[in-house]
């Protein structure tokens, strides 16, 4: 594994040298190209050299590639110095290194070629399986499948929706890999469960749990709290969660809990509402299960029956294809030795899915059979290790990289792929194909059941993924044996830190003792990850000048609020992610940087900083991400031609004032763009969006206004004028803006628009403020996904052919919308309607549309309702009398000046007290008498100021 990764990484370095504009001698560039070709020829050998006889040679290849790359990059660092004498000396040294490397590789190739023929002869004369299913089709149909347990599902579903009004805990217990989490996921996503509970949430506890992280996860993902949470102490977060759950029927999955102490830490978060709320808990320890669910008995998770095991194996190994009869006997032997453990079955089947011959299957069967006398845990670990050993060489490094991340966490696929690219873990196949190749590798790992896809975008693209705990343990063991990864485990001392690890990851708080260790500890380090995500600030210096060859630096979870000294000297750096910073960024020397992200942890904040003018010389830059930043226009290179960042793929956080014709010509190949700022930023650049026409390759655009409550500037200018939209735009997101429906007509003219998202939106029908959206006759011909979030929309009408391709509609917190276009009942494409925080009237109307479709024989459409609210009514008298004082059910409503009464009777009732304070007192008194305010907070909005009081 490490040999393949080392070779591909060296190839990437040679490619950069051959393409670099640095002052290399011409002979060195020619040697670099020659070495690139020589090294590339090694990959073919390594792809077919996974047997035991080749391990020594693989290690030799790895050590040689790593040594050559270290020496080459060390000289490149010297060539970047301004001293001409140093440059000349480094060039001469580099030529000798390259020439010697070419000789060494020729020698290794001779040794590699000897066992290669013997190994290949084993593949002759075997029965072959049919062609493999494409990765994309397989991953969409096979992942996260739940086979068997139909009786158990019915039983648990009955307990979750049972008649007991008390809060109950249903515990599921069983060994790792038996399918507890998959079972829980099946339960929480079941349509009958979705419709029964107002709130559904999921937290993963694991051994090294973080109470704070779990609290924030529930508040953001399950409750939908958008306020800043990272500054609040844990007790305030817990109090906020309790209040948010008060009075609501909730289902929370507490996954993979390891101790009674952990349960005691979190059980207090969940209030007893006497409304049939439930906790679904999974654990490997029966004692914990009994304690948590007492007096109810825990639910012991069983292994799969033989027939269920075979069905799961066939699903993972063959997909939808019929299996050849000659493979059935050996397949059933393998399944029998997995003892009904779903993880073992899935992983070994995933491994076999890419093996085409009967001999290969028999070899795996013999290996699995050799583990039959071990206990369940040892046998499971052994089977997982076998599956890893049978992975193709090009997948092994990508798989082991999951050990860098913390256990039991969801991993951003976008970030994972950028890290793989920065580390050089896969072969370079054209600069524009890097992301595509990386996604293909991820799909391969999912097909082999080594990685699980979690969240997806509407079009099926994987957004997050995770790795099972047992497989994560395997990553740590294998990367240890390969001398690849060091994961912090305090306390640290100079005697227990392995030397020369290429990946270093802090899963707990960064320990300053690590940075006081001798220099050899850092000499080979290529990546530093700080993943603790703690709200503290480091008070010691990282000493980055000692990490000369560092490629990846992830400071986001370190607590560092400034860019450390020595950063500008990391000339090999390709990936940089950090939290809050301000002022000037010392990145002008980072000519190899591919990815730059500067954000706060758990917060979206408009950080003000300037990128240096030298950014335009960073030719390798592919992704630039922040909340808000300023960059000057590109310099001219000749005539009217501007310097172009040819490799730049995505930009997020560009200030409006930067959105000039010159800027867009300098980033003309960008495919994703986010324009972000406050009202003043947009006010200072009123025509900035009209320049978007100069981005011909742009496919996704986001326009974000941060201070949406304090300005209606984007009420007038939320979108470009007619004819200024990029011609290839497929996705448009407007967040925090105000919008006229006439401007939606402009948007509807986009010929390729497939995704339209209105987030935190105020939607107005016309200039008079009428909240109606009448879709024009032109409609949205290509639109597949539509999201409307927040208030402002009361009426929505459309014609039969307004949305001919629409597949999914999501409506969030549109509290006054009672109906959606009834023409949806005739749609042949609509598959899903999601309603979040909407009224019962809207939910019932959507379900009527679903029933009409079913009558017509169309059973595709599904309607999901989450956190349905009580009906609200506008009170004309209240509005007339109060003038500038309005009583609101939530603080958010108070800020947005939404005026509601709890019942229709209240809305109709005449109010005689003309004093707004008297009105406030009388209205609250009525609420208290009726018992409506008990345990709740009432908020008052007075001339833009918001106050709250609990009653």
Report on this structure.
Helix 15 (342-352) packs parallel to helix 17 (376-389). The protein has 951 residues and is α/β, with parallel strands linked by helices. Helix 26 links the parallel strand 31 (832-836) and strand 32. It contains 30 helices and 35 strands. The strands form eight sheets. Strands 9-10-11-12-13-15-17-20-21-22-23-25-28-30-31-32 form a 16-stranded parallel sheet. Among the domains are: 2-121, Up-down Bundle (Single alpha-helices involved in coiled-coils or other helix-helix interfaces), CATH 1.20.5.4130; 150-300, Rossmann fold, CATH 3.40.50; 305-390, no CATH class; 392-479, Winged helix-like DNA-binding domain superfamily/Winged helix DNA-binding domain (Arc Repressor Mutant, subunit A); 876-950, no CATH class. Mean pLDDT is 79; it is low at 116-126, 130-144, 709-716, 765-769 and 872-951.
Tags for this entry?
ATP binding, leucine-rich repeat, Single alpha-helices involved in coiled-coils or other helix-helix interfaces, 35 strands, five-stranded parallel sheet, nucleotide-binding, 951 residues, 30 helices, alpha/beta, 16-stranded parallel sheet, single chain, Rossmann fold, disordered C terminus
């Amino acid at each position: 594994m490490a040999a393949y990764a080392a070779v591909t990484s060296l190839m990437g370095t040679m490619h950069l040298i051959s393409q670099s504009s640095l002052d290399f001698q011409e002979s060195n560039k020619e040697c670099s190209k020659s070495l690139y070709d020589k090294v590339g020829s090694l990959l073919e050998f390594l792809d077919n050299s996974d047997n035991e006889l080749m391990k020594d040679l693989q290690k030799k290849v790895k050590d040689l590639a790593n040594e050559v790359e270290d020496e080459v990059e060390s000289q490149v660092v010297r060539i970047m110095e301004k001293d001409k004498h140093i440059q000349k000396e480094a060039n001469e040294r580099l030529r000798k290194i390259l020439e010697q490397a070419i000789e060494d590789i020729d020698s290794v190739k001779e040794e590699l070629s000897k066992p290669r023929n013997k190994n290949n002869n084993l593949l002759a004369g075997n029965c072959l399986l049919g062609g493999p299913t494409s990765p994309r089709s397989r991953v969409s149909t096979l992942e996260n499948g739940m086979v068997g347990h139909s009786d158990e599902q019915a039983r648990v579903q009955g307990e979750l929706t049972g008649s007991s009004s008390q809060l109950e805990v249903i515990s599921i217990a069983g060994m790792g890999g038996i399918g507890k989490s998959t079972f829980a996921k099946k339960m929480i996503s079941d349509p009958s469960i979705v419709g029964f509970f107002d709130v559904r949430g999921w937290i993963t506890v694991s051994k090294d749990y973080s109470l704070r992280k779990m609290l924030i996860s529930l508040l953001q993902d399950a409750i939908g709290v958008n306020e800043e949470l990272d500054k609040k102490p844990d007790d305030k977060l817990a109090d906020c969660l309790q209040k948010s759950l008060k009075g609501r029927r909730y289902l929370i999955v507490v996954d993979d809990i390891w101790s009674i102490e952990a349960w005691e830490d979190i059980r207090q978060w969940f209030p007893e509402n006497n409304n049939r709320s439930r906790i679904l808990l999974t654990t490997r320890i029966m004692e914990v299960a009994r304690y948590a669910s007492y007096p109810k008995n825990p639910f012991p998770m069983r292994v799969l029956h033989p027939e269920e095991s075979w069905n799961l194996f066939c699903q993972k190994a063959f997909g939808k294809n019929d299996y050849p009869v000659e493979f059935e006997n050996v397949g059933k032997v393998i399944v029998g030795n997995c003892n009904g453990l779903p993880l073992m079955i899935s992983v070994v089947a995933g491994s076999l899915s890419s093996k085409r011959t009967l001999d290969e299957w028999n070899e795996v069967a013999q290996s699995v059979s050799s583990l039959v006398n071990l206990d369940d845990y040892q046998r499971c670990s052994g089977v997982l290790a076998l599956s890893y050993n049978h992975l193709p060489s090009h997948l092994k490094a990508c798989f082991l990289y999951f050990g860098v991340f913390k256990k039991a966490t969801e991993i951003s696929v976008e970030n994972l792929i950028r890290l793989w690219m920065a580390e050089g873990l896969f072969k370079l196949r054209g600069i524009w194909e890097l992301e595509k190749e990386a996604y293909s590798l991820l799909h391969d790992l999912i097909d082999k059941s080594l990685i699980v896809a979690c969240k997806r975008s509407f079009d099926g693209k994987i957004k997050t993924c995770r790795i099972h705990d047992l497989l994560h343990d395997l990553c740590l063991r294998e990367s240890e044996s390969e001398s690849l990864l060091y994961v912090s485990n305090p306390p640290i001392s100079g005697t227990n830190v392995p030397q020369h690890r290429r990946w270093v990851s802090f899963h707990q708080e960064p320990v300053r003792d690590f940075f006081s260790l001798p220099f050899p500890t850092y000499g080979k380090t290529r990546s530093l990850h700080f993943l603790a995500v703690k709200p503290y600030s480091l008070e010691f210096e990282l000493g980055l000048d000692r990490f000369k060859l560092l490629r990846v630096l992830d400071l986001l979870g370190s607590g560092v609020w400034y860019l450390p000294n020595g950063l500008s000297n990391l000339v090999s750096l390709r990936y940089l992610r950090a939290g809050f910073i301000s002022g000037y960024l010392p990145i002008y020397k980072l000519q190899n940087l591919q990815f730059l992200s500067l954000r706060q942890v758990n917060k979206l904040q408009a950080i003000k900083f300037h990128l240096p003018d030298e950014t335009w010389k960073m030719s390798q830059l592919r992704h630039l991400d922040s909340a808000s930043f300023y960059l000057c226009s590109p310099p001219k290179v000749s005539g009217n031609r501007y310097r172009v960042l040819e490799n730049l793929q995505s930009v997020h956080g560009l200030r409006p004032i930067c959105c000039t014709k010159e800027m867009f010509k300098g980033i003309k190949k960008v495919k994703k763009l986010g324009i972000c700022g406050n009202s003043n930023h947009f006010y200072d650049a009123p025509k900035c969006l009209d320049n978007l026409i100069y981005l011909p390759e742009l496919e996704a655009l986001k326009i974000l206004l941060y201070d949406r409550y304090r300005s209606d500037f984007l009420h007038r200018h939320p979108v470009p004028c007619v004819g200024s939209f990029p011609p290839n735009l497929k996705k448009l997101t407007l967040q925090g803006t105000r919008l006229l429906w006439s401007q939606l007509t402009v948007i509807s003219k986009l010929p390729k628009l497939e995704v339209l998202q209105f987030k935190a939106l105020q939607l107005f029908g016309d200039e008079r403020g009428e909240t109606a959206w009448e879709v024009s006759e032109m409609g949205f011909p290509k639109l597949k996904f539509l999201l409307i979030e927040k208030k402002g929309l009361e009426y929505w009408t459309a014609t039969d052919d307004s949305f001919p391709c629409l597949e999914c509609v999501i409506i969030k917190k549109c509290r006054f919308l009672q109906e959606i276009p009834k023409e949806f009942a005739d749609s042949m494409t609509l598959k899903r309607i999601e309603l979040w925080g909407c009224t019962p009237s809207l939910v019932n109307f959507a379900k009527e549309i679903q029933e009409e479709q079913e009558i017509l024989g169309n059973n595709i459409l599904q309607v999901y309702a989450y956190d349905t609210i009580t009906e609200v009514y506008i009170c004309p008298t209240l509005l007339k009398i109060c003038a500038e004082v309005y009583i609101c059910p939530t603080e958010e409503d108070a800020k947005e000046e939404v005026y509601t009464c709890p019942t229709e009777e209240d809305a109709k009732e005449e109010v005689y007290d003309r004093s707004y304070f008297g009105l406030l007192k009388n209205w609250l008194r009525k609420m208290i008498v009726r018992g409506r305010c008990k345990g709740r907070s009432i908020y008052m909005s007075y001339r833009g100021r918001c106050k709250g009081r609990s009653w």
